[in-house]
């Protein structure tokens, strides 16, 4: 009779398809009201000899069923793990999903290219705050109080908070002012970054980017300025014999000052860069005004230097054929996919600026 029970329970154990079913079998056989337990309870009514024999049989049966349950439990656990490993398997050799890769904005790429070129010439990158005070943005740069040049910049002033009038920098020049106030010459820095002017039309956005440069040393002269900018423009536009023209100009912070044109041709509505007789304005520059040096704590009888500035959107549009300035800041992913750069295309002088 116990043999029949054993066969029945063992077949139930082997038929249990999951841990819950197996537990049910265990309760039916070995639980408080289980069938084996029931027989155990009947032992008390037997004679001592019968009780010993029947007790040994029941204990053996109990052990065998418990062992079968444990074995089945291990089988189920192994099968469960195997199923998960099959279902959750990942193929690490598959290529990266292309849609997860973003694009580098043309402004960032252009800044990276310029940094690569100037780094090669020994310039460091300097940064400063977007929110500035009147001294660092205007006064130190030789804009006298009430001078019309201050109006030219269409400054965004912040709501009054305290005695100091704060504003959004109208150029990155305050970065150079801060560098001169904090470091002794020789100085050789570029300052790329955001700038702000209250202006919005086809060719102006209220936020735009500039890169400015500053070199201060004891004998830095106009020849260094010209050589530096000629080398920069030829590298940036990738035209070896690109002609440059320096036209006299005026800025409050430089004297003498010049605007720089590069050679081009506009025949047939197409713009080509090179020695074609036509000219295109590209940047401004000059020798740092002695008043600026003195305002920034530098002895103008001992040191002199040059500075330059250019708009990044403008040269990016030129170099990459982007027709409309305003699209730079519309955050249109289709535009970014078209004009953006792949992240691994990192500009460097050794590997090429941008492929
Ligand atoms: C210090 C001293 C001198 C920076 C310079 C220009 C000429 C210039 C414009 C180009 C187009 C700005 O983006 S734009 O509108 N900039 O023409 N910038 S010299 O001169 C400095 C700067 C800082 C202390």
UniProtKB/TrEMBL annotation:
What are the BP-aspect GO terms? phenylalanyl-tRNA aminoacylation
Q: Which GO terms describe its molecular function?
A: ATP binding; magnesium ion binding; phenylalanine-tRNA ligase activity; tRNA binding
* Transmembrane residue ranges: none
UniProt keywords (A-Z) are: Aminoacyl-tRNA synthetase, ATP-binding, Cytoplasm, Ligase, Magnesium, Metal-binding, Nucleotide-binding, Protein biosynthesis
Q: What class of enzyme is it?
A: ligase
Its GO CC terms are: cytoplasm
User: Could you give the cofactor binding note from the entry?
Assistant: Binds 2 magnesium ions per tetramer.
- Please list the residues that bind Mg(2+): 255
Q: Where is this chain's protein located in or outside the cell? A: Cytoplasm
* Catalyzed reactions per annotation: tRNA(Phe) + L-phenylalanine + ATP = L-phenylalanyl-tRNA(Phe) + AMP + diphosphate + H(+)
Q: Which cofactor does it need?
A: Mg(2+)
State the SUPFAM superfamilies in the record.
Class II aaRS and biotin synthetases, tRNA-binding arm
Record-linked Pfam families:
Phe_tRNA-synt_N, tRNA-synt_2d
Q: Where is the Aminoacyl-transfer RNA synthetases class-II family profile domain?
A: 117-343
Q: Which family does it belong to?
A: Belongs to the class-II aminoacyl-tRNA synthetase family. Phe-tRNA synthetase alpha subunit type 1 subfamily.
Q: How does it assemble?
A: Tetramer of two alpha and two beta subunits.
Q: Which NCBIfam families match?
A: pheS
Its recorded name reads: Phenylalanine--tRNA ligase alpha subunit
Q: What organism does the record attribute this protein to?
A: Azospirillum argentinense
């Amino acid at each position: 009779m116990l043999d029949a029970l054993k066969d029945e329970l063992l077949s139930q154990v082997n038929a249990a398809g999951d841990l819950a079913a197996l537990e049910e079998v265990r309760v039916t056989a070995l639980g408080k009201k289980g069938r084996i337990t029931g027989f155990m309870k009947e032992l008390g009514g037997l004679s001592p000899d019968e009780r010993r024999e029947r007790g040994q049989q029941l204990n053996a049966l109990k052990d065998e069923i418990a062992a079968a349950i444990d074995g089945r439990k291990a089988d189920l656990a192994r099968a469960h793990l195997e199923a998960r490993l099959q279902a959750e398997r990942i193929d690490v050799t598959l290529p990266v999903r292309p849609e997860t890769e973003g694009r580098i904005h043309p402004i960032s790429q252009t800044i990276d290219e310029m940094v690569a070129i100037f780094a090669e010439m020994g310039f460091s990158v300097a940064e400063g705050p977007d929110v500035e005070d009147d001294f660092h943005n205007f006064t130190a740069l030789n804009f006298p109080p009430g001078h019309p040049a201050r109006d030219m910049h269409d400054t965004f002033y912040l709501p009054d908070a305290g005695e100091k009038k704060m504003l959004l920098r109208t150029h990155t020049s305050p970065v150079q002012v801060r560098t001169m106030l904090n470091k002794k010459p020789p100085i050789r820095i570029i300052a790329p970054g955001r700038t702000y002017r209250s202006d919005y039309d086809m060719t102006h956005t209220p936020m735009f980017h500039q890169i400015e440069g500053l070199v201060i040393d004891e004998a830095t002269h106009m020849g260094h300025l010209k050589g530096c900018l000629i080398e920069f423009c030829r590298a940036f536009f990738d035209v070896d014999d690109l002609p440059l023209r320096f036209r006299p100009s005026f800025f409050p912070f430089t004297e003498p000052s010049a605007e720089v044109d590069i050679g081009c041709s506009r025949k047939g509505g197409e713009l080509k860069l090179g020695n074609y007789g036509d000219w295109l304005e590209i940047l401004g520059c000059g020798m740092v005004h002695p008043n600026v040096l003195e305002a920034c704590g530098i002895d103008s009888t001992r040191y002199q230097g040059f500075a330059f500035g250019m708009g990044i959107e403008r040269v990016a549009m030129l170099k990459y054929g982007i027709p409309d300035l305003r699209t730079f800041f519309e955050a249109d992913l289709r535009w970014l996919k078209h004009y953006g750069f792949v992240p691994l295309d990192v500009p460097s002088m050794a590997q090429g600026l941008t492929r």
